[in-house]
Design goal:
Blueprint: E1 4-10, H1 16-54, H2 58-68, H3 75-111, H4 114-121, H5 123-144, H6 153-180, H7 183-206, E2 218-224, E3 228-233, H8 235-243, E4 249-253, E5 260-261, E6 266-272, H9 275-288, E7 289-292, H10 301-316, H11 323-339, E8 354-355, H12 360-378, H13 381-394, H14 400-413, H15 424-439, H16 443-457
Parallel strand pairs: 1-2, 4-8
Antiparallel strand pairs: 2-6, 3-5, 3-7, 4-6
Helix pairs in contact: 1-5, 1-6, 3-4, 3-5, 3-6, 5-6, 7-10, 7-11, 8-9, 10-11, 10-12, 11-12, 11-13, 12-13, 12-14, 13-15, 15-16
């Protein structure tokens, strides 16, 4: 059969309407969903309290009579109280939000802008802001119903009780915000998002193939006219389109979650026995790949790894020279490396005819290499030592492909090791790494590490500068 080739272009999804839709979708995904639900609940609560205030059952009349003896003796007094509650909550909330944003901004200046993402995504923060705004709405709705002939005693009583709760929640909000600005908490929040996103991603990977299995005579290349990050791939849409066809079709994706694509970049290709079928599936593939100008940590674990890398680079390098956050992140990345060391994930017995290349482990390995570079620039030997310790503890548990990449990283970072002083603890960790590599049969790499260690060891006891430590 004669081979046929075709190229299709997916129209630019980054038009104004699509960007507005993606922005709204991202806003609700990151922050607005829970506050909106709470706001609706408060509006419904206002409607229920209004119904109760208009209900004249005997027990409700008894409650109203008791409340009238205190602060709700007239509609005017009730209106004044509700007005005070609404204005006070709005004023205090405005001042509190301003102060908290200043705190968040100050922390973000040292821990990168990822702090904002974690602050917005925290469920308790969403609850607090939703509660305060909802209470303001509730008070204003009840206040609007007050007149000379109607005194909403039950609605006002509920507002007063909720106001007391809101005042205490302000204290909790202040504490939780300050607590969230601690490096360990920020890193922990990102780590949790990474673990959750990776679980979702593995379900997706299990449904796809790791290598192409079909070499059809027809080849349709898919290119995009958009630009941005790959934030989602709806594999079920692609599979549904393929199932409708009677011919054999396979989709090979050239991009992974989190990859950036530019104008007319290839996002994949379709192999089939019919050029028409290939093109029809190709258009579906283009529509099933979501492109946005911002990455999404909920679906993209590599984005979380990148966030940790950015924070660690800022902390380790001379930009901040803060050792503690860097150490915490290297140890967190080691945990991820050990969790993901087995790249042979169990897939479905009958996966979709979609080929997807997992990019998480390569990016994680690249992160260790990048941070090793940062340690040489700032001479933070503790973080360099922690990276060496990571390779020692994880090497035996890595797959063959990742072992090769680990050895490659080790060989590359040895060229910068001369910027460090050979402390006793660093020498011990280097010796342990040599032993691990030798026991695993990686003699060449082990010899290189041993030679570099011995060369640096010659500088011990001698007066040297950074540039003359190794000759």
């Amino acid at each position: 059969m004669e081979s046929k080739y075709s190229v299709i272009f997916i129209e630019n999804k980054n038009n104004s309407f699509m960007q507005v839709w993606l922005t709204v979708k991202r806003a609700f995904r990151e922050f607005l969903t829970l506050p909106t639900i709470i706001l609706v609940v408060f509006i419904l609560l206002a409607a229920c309290s209004n119904m109760l205030d208009h209900n004249h059952q005997e027990w409700l009349n008894t409650v109203r009579a008791l409340m009238k003896k205190t602060i709700f003796h007239s509609g005017g007094a009730t209106g004044d109280l509700l007005g005070t509650i609404a204005s006070s909550i709005i004023t205090v909330l405005s001042l509190t939000i301003t102060l908290l944003l200043i705190v968040v901004q100050q922390t973000a200046s040292s821990m990168t802008t990822q702090v904002f993402d974690q602050f917005l995504r925290a469920r308790h923060n969403q609850f607090y802001f939703g509660f305060f705004v909802g209470l303001s709405f509730y008070s204003l709705i009840v206040l609007a119903s007050v007149n000379d002939s109607f005194n909403p005693i039950i609605g006002a009583s509920v507002a007063f009780s909720l106001c007391v709760i809101a005042i205490y929640l302000l204290l909790i909000l202040v504490y939780t915000t300050i607590n969230e600005m601690r490096p360990a908490v920020i890193i922990g929040a990102i780590y949790d998002h990474i673990i959750s996103a990776r679980k979702k991603q593995l379900l997706f990977i299990a449904k796809t193939r790791s290598t192409p299995c079909f070499d059809g005579p027809c080849h349709v290349t898919i290119k995009t006219k958009g630009h941005g990050y790959i934030t989602n791939i709806y594999e079920k849409r692609i599979h549904s389109a393929i199932k409708k066809l009677k011919t054999e079709v396979e989709v090979v994706l050239s991009v992974s979650l989190g990859d950036y694509v530019s104008y007319e970049d290839e996002i994949g290709y379709v192999t089939s026995t019919s050029i028409e079928d290939g093109e029809s599936v190709g258009y579906v593939v283009g529509e099933a790949i979501e492109i946005d100008l911002q990455r999404d940590i909920t679906n993209d674990p590599a984005n979380g790894v990148k966030q940790l890398k950015m924070i660690a680079w800022t902390s380790i390098s001379t930009a901040k020279q803060s050792q503690s956050p860097g150490l915490t992140i290297v140890r967190t990345l080691r945990d991820l490396l050990l969790r993901w060391s087995d790249t042979n994930h169990k897939g479905d017995n009958d996966p979709y005819p979609i080929v997807y290349k997992d990019n998480v482990m390569p990016q994680l390995m690249d992160t260790f290499e990048t941070l090793a570079v940062a340690t040489t620039e700032s001479m933070q030997h503790e973080n360099f030592k922690e990276i060496i310790r990571t390779f020692s503890s994880a090497y035996d548990r890595l797959s063959g492909e990742n072992k090769i990449r680990t050895e490659d990283i080790i060989m590359r970072i040895l060229s910068g090791m001369g910027d460090h002083m050979l402390t006793a603890s660093l020498e011990d960790d280097l010796n342990i790494l040599v032993k691990v590599l030798r026991n695993a049969g990686s003699i060449e790499t082990a010899n290189a590490v041993e030679m570099a260690t011995n060369t640096l060891k010659q500088s011990v006891g001698r007066l040297n500068s950074r540039s003359t430590r190794i000759k």
